[in-house]
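Customer escalation, tier 2.

The customer says the design service returned an amino acid string that "doesn't look like it belongs to this structure." They asked us to rerun it and document both sides in this ticket. The original structure tokens are below, unchanged.
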């Protein structure tokens, strides 16, 4: 973020001092308005001092350029007055003087965007592609009405590696379901400059109908200049991709979750005919119309979009298929007794294999028998008792043999004194009732 945009100025700038031919505002460190980590700094051609906040040396920020996972990132602003800091932010104070631009971290005379932009992040295809070239074209709406003026209407990003291997991205018209501008055109030219691509994988991948995520997200949604034919902005544009790309001839590329950030100073051109992006209405929807002429999402190949905007699995049962998995957790049919389902989904005759077996699978989708009582079927098809046995009877898992019968232990009373259901009554005597003293009645008195 360009800190000058906040309008933070030093409370009492010192008199200007002349160094060579450049006027520099002489500032007193420690008088910044941003707190203990802010300094009042001076820079060439500045009309006044500005406050620049520097993160403490032991503080890191997060970055998500490589695989979508958050990793620690330390801003790199050593010797820089402007430009990206490598962590999604920008070095300050920036170049705000008229006729200056940022080139290699320094403010020099020139036009906005002359220093170019930088790209960070990896296109997650093959072994991964890190682009070393980037250009960007930005357009905004010029409108006399403030509620529409300045909105970003389109972004065109061109990324490249070596002498080729380009990714062309165009975004605008509408917002993406997850935010940002929707990508309306995507072309990946995989050639000999793309690492990890054999000849058979090279080609022009232009079909993005199976991409699940396609958006360009910016730090800003509109410029601050009013009804401006052009505006110089310093910001990030993040390309978000995930899904399947195709060349139209049968070749496909799986694109894992990708974020590529394009950062720097760039010029936005105003348009009086462009429209602000249509706001997609995709809350609670996985697919279906977004209200802007696009889809809220793409369903898998074996699913279709319901009227409620949800992807519903469609059973995949071929004509004449009698049995087998339908691809949705169900079956295409059930075979009869002494039949089994073939790999092709047909019910074929089957001879049960139950010789020497008491239980278990008969090889035809049925059973050779079932075990009774508390016995279980082992891998050899035999009914066995894994618990205690009592008089030839298989007891339950928690039973014990007591007095020739299976008993279930019962615990009750202080200290959980253990008694047994059957054993507690065996051989016991009824409790002795206390003798009652009979007092003589009045009729017995003498």
């Amino acid at each position: 973020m360009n800190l000058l945009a906040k309008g933070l100025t030093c409370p009492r700038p010192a008199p200007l001092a002349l160094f060579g031919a450049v006027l520099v505002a002489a500032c007193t460190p420690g008088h910044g308005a941003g707190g203990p980590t802010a300094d009042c700094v001076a820079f060439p051609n500045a009309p006044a001092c500005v406050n620049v906040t520097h993160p403490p040396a032991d503080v890191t920020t997060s970055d998500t350029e490589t695989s979508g996972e958050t990793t620690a990132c330390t801003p790199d602003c050593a010797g820089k007055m402007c430009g990206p800091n490598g962590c999604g932010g920008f070095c300050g104070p920036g170049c705000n003087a008229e006729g200056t631009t940022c080139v290699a971290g320094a403010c020099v005379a020139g036009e906005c965007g002359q220093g170019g932009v930088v790209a960070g992040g990896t296109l997650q295809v093959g072994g991964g592609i890190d682009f070393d070239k980037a250009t960007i074209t930005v357009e905004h709406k010029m409108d006399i009405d403030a509620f529409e003026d300045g909105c970003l209407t389109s972004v065109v990003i061109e990324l490249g590696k070596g002498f080729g291997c380009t990714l062309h991205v165009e975004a605008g018209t509408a917002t993406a379901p997850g935010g940002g501008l929707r990508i309306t055109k995507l072309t990946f030219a995989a050639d000999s400059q793309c690492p990890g691509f054999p000849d058979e994988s090279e080609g022009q991948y232009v079909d993005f109908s199976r991409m699940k995520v396609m958006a360009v997200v910016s730090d800003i949604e509109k410029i601050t200049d009013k009804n401006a034919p052009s505006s110089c902005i310093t910001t990030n544009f993040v390309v978000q991709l995930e899904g399947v790309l195709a060349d139209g001839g049968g070749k496909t590329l799986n694109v894992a979750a990708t974020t590529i950030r394009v950062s720097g100073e760039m010029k936005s051109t105003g348009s009086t005919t462009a429209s602000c992006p249509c706001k997609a209405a995709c809350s609670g929807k996985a697919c279906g119309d977004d209200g802007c002429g696009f889809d809220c999402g793409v369903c898998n190949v074996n699913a279709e979009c319901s009227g409620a905007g949800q992807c519903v699995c469609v059973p995949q049962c071929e004509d004449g298929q009698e049995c087998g998995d339908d691809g949705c957790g169900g079956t295409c049919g059930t075979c009869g007794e002494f039949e089994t389902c073939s790999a092709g989904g047909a019910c074929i005759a089957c001879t049960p294999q139950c010789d020497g077996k008491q239980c278990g699978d008969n090889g035809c989708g049925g059973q050779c028998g079932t075990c009774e009582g508390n016995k279980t079927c082992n891998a050899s098809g035999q009914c066995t008792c894994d618990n205690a046995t009592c008089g030839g009877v298989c007891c339950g898992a928690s039973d014990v043999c007591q007095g020739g019968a299976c008993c279930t232990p019962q615990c009750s009373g202080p200290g959980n004194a253990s008694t047994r259901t059957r054993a507690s009554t065996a051989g016991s005597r009824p409790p002795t009732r206390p003798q009652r003293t009979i007092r003589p009645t009045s009729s017995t008195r003498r």
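Tier 2 assessment: The sequence is consistent with the input. The CA atoms of residues 167 and 188 lie 5 Å apart. Residues 116-280 form one domain. Sent an explanation to the customer and offered a walkthrough call.
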